[in-house]
């Protein structure tokens, strides 16, 4: 088996977890990250701290490249140098926020859509047989989930138990005729292109449409990183702005570790042009109100929140991922973290960093 894995966004939440995991399996990891998260979200968002930690922990198995994924020639040179040694590609670099995308639509599209075809084409030219994993998003379904017949409970919205998607929304939901946000639309372009490289060029590509991805590796910023930012606000006694839906919107949360074990399963038995909804599902989900309650219990501190009676455009009122298709293809894979376990770990990992 080829022993090199190329990981974009390697200093970010998902990328860094992937670096540790695959280096731990004995693969050499080539990371691509230019700390553009710092440009998107300011100092809170910079992933430089995570990169430094990573380099120290992983040592010689990790090589970092400060390449911008918009730099087509730079990526091609990198892949040309590695050639068929590349046995796996994980493309997790992105502009990840709805709100930010509307500020600079060209930048968002260049990073998310054009950056993805740059990665696909470099892989096709130099390492066509390497499984190519792309971190897409449930925002490709736009605001269609908001047309579900939700009922209001005391701390959350919920689907009736007899609804076909009570256990989670599956991949048959339409991606058409809905409001995606500029970010959602650039991710759709990338998502379809990854599928197309699978079908058209017969490459082992997979699209993982994530719900809320989280873990202690997140550089928690107001515009991105839900559970990490909830915990940061409680620990630092910052005020968290809740946008709309009475704080009862539901998110499923998957720990970066559980996502990466799913990637490993795909790497070991790749398929062509797959799409998977991927998240914490029924096992791991919460509303904002519930997340703050758990964070307060863990820290012993009161949460400071401010309610803004205007939801973010295109934001989901309720999302729980249906992971049935993935579980059917990879029955050995299991979720191991639920929301309280995720929040506790974020708390413990950041005790020296986030102080009031
Ligand atoms: N975190 C979530 O809740 C979530 C949910 C669904 C999908 N996703 C997707 O998962 C992927 C990873 O998300 P994450 O939470 O790890 O994000 P992240 O922001 O923590 O990491 C992304 C990394 O990519 C880097 N990057 C951005 N633009 C770059 C560029 N032009 N060139 C090189 N590097 C660049 C950033 O500096 C950052 O370190 C993204 O594609 C995101 O859209 C995330």
Describe the protein in words.
The protein has 356 residues and is of the alpha/beta class. The chain has a single domain (4-349), classed as NAD(P)-binding Rossmann-like Domain (Rossmann fold). Helix content is 40%, strand content 18%. The protein contains twelve helices and 15 strands. The chain has helices at residues 13-24, 36-41, 48-58, 72-82, 98-103, 105-126, 181-201, 226-236, 256-268, 288-299, 324-329, 339-349, and strands at residues 4-8, 28-32, 62-65, 86-91, 132-137, 151-152, 157-158, 205-210, 212-214, 239-243, 250-255, 274-278, 285-287, 304-308, 318-319. A seven-stranded parallel beta sheet has the order 3-2-1-4-5-8-12, sandwiched between helices. Strands 9, 11, 13 and 15 form a four-stranded mixed beta sheet that branches. α1 (13-24) runs parallel beside α3 (48-58). The longest helix has 22 residues, at 105-126. The radius of gyration is 19 Å and the shape is globular. It starts with a strand and ends in a 7-residue tail after the last helix. The structure holds nicotinamide-adenine-dinucleotide. Nicotinamide-adenine-dinucleotide binds next to α1, α2, α6, β5 and β9. It comes from Actinoplanes philippinensis.
